[in-house]
Amino acid sequence: MPIKAILTDIEGTTSAVSFVFDVLFPYAQKHLPDFLRNRATEPAVATQLEAARRESGEPDADIERVVEILLGWIAADRKATSLKALQGMVWAEGYRAGQLKGHVYPDAVAALRRWHEQGYALYVYSSGSVQAQRLIFGCAEAGDLTPLFSGYFDTSIGHKREVESYAQIAVSIGLPAGEVLFLSDVVEELDAARKAGMHTCGLVREGASLTGHQAVASFDAIDPAGY
Fold first, then answer.
1. What is the pTM for the complete model shown?
2. What Å distances lie between residue 6 and 58, 165, 183, CA to CA?
3. Which CATH superfamily hosts domain 5-16+103-226?
């Protein structure tokens, strides 16, 4: 079956890992405490604070304790959906203020534009929230890339190393898994996508190896028609 859709990871794939760890995480760590103190009663924020309390097992934690918990999760790079949502809100303010610009590799920008023009449906699957995904691509250094994408997926559909997550994404896209090409820099994610029936291609920008999968150093080397 020919490829009709391309599903891509962000961190280490379309964008530098250093952007997340050296720019986004420190920004959230610096601005999250005051953001939560000032906006804790807003419904969208309050919902995520309650989710964080449940996940931490501290349902009665006051705002200062929740701040402490969330900062600890940031330091540990914990993939908590509530944390990702709150980080996304903080980043949104940073992007709107012009303090943040999304990093997307030039080769990824060129390929995504080319594939869109060729008629491939493009989707994103990242552990970062959908909001954060839209911000990276919508406020990218290369301009607004969001018109290129047909949809976004985060861990609310399932974790990235679980086969069922990719099966659910294929259902959501409305295509057989065999018509989807998944791009990532993590072998366990590629393994899960392949077991779900997707085609895979690994990105090895830092020279790592991805055992058992075709791997390339740049989006320039990916030809969806070759799968």
1. 0.86
2. 40, 15, 8
3. HAD superfamily/HAD-like (3.40.50.1000)
